[in-house]
Design a protein that fits this description.
Layout: E1 4-9, E2 16-21, E3 24-29, H1 37-51, E4 61-65, H2 71-85, E5 91-95, H3 97-108, E6 117-123, E7 129-135, E8 146-154, H4 156-163, E9 167-172, H5 179-184, E10 188-194, H6 202-214, E11 219-220, H7 233-239, H8 248-253
Parallel strand pairs: 1-4, 4-5, 6-9, 9-10
Antiparallel strand pairs: 1-2, 2-3, 5-11, 6-7, 7-8
Helix pairs in contact: 1-2, 3-6
């Protein structure tokens, strides 16, 4: 059976929705949503599904980027996915926003020099970055790259220290602030995608999701959770600790903010 999968990317300002049959992208729409995810996402999903000649009840799965990203945008996307799955037999799988960004190079630059790893980088504010890295050479049978740099919250200095001496490719929407840090830290860049072209896209979220579902991952839509990598400031202040459970060790060693959320 060829799986009909709805893919949602709402973690960043660049909202997008795609419909895939297997690995074929049947439809992709990326409206200029700005900060209006709450009002734009559902109409976009309706256009993508109906424009493909399908009904929501014909969906087999949902793939959605689960972070890191904007706290509000992630919640809107997850709430929408859970609403669509309510009362329907739909399996769901969460996809890392950073991995979806890195996928742009693995997918579009096959066979070209990508260095020792592809690193995806997002602005985490407060002088920090969200980052993760994947190896271009050691692909598994499922076609997914191997993670080689733990996804986490990094200070620029900590990230450069982890990457120093390597020849990496970088994918980041940031167009300033990172280049000087990388060069000053001795990080050699094989390839770079920056600016709007580096934003995660729903079709790439969908292709990763299909592969993860093929190897038995995924579950009920209601089990989807966001991976913020850092709690919202109010929550961090109230509960203590800068990040979600399970990320403390990695983020702490990468130069996380203190328990006040600064």
């Amino acid at each position: 059976m060829t799986r009909n999968l709805l893919a949602i990317e709402s973690a960043t300002d660049g909202l997008s929705v795609a419909l895939l049959r297997g690995n074929e992208v049947v439809a992709l729409e990326a409206p200029d949503a700005g900060r209006r995810h709450a009002s734009v996402l559902l109409p976009t999903i309706d256009r993508v599904v109906q424009g493909s000649g399908m009904k929501l009840d014909e969906l087999d799965a949902i793939g959605i980027s689960t972070g890191p990203g904007s706290f509000t945008s992630l919640r809107i996307g997850l709430a929408t996915a859970k609403g669509l799955g309510f009362g329907r037999s739909i399996v769901a799988v969460g996809v890392s926003t950073l991995e979806a960004m890195a996928w742009s190079l693995f997918e579009d630059e096959s066979g070209k020099n990508l260095g020792t790893q592809v690193v995806a980088l997002l602005d985490a504010r407060r002088g920090q970055w969200y980052a993760g890295g994947w190896a271009p050479a050691a692909r598994r049978e499922d076609g997914l790259p191997d993670p080689v740099l733990a996804e986490g919250l990094y200070s620029p200095e900590a990230l450069v220290a982890d990457l120093r001496g390597g020849d990496v490719s970088l994918v980041t929407p940031l167009v300033s602030g990172w280049r000087e840090v990388f060069r000053g830290g001795g990080v050699s860049l094989a390839r770079v995608i920056e600016g709007p072209a580096a934003r995660p896209r729903a079709d790439r979220v969908g292709r990763i999701a299909q592969r993860r579902l093929d190897r038995g991952e995924g579950g009920a839509v209601g089990t989807l959770v966001a991976r913020y990598l850092r709690r919202a400031e109010a929550e961090a202040t109230r509960l203590g600790g800068p990040v979600e459970e399970g990320e403390v060790d990695r983020v702490g060693s990468a130069g996380s903010p203190d328990s006040s959320g600064r």
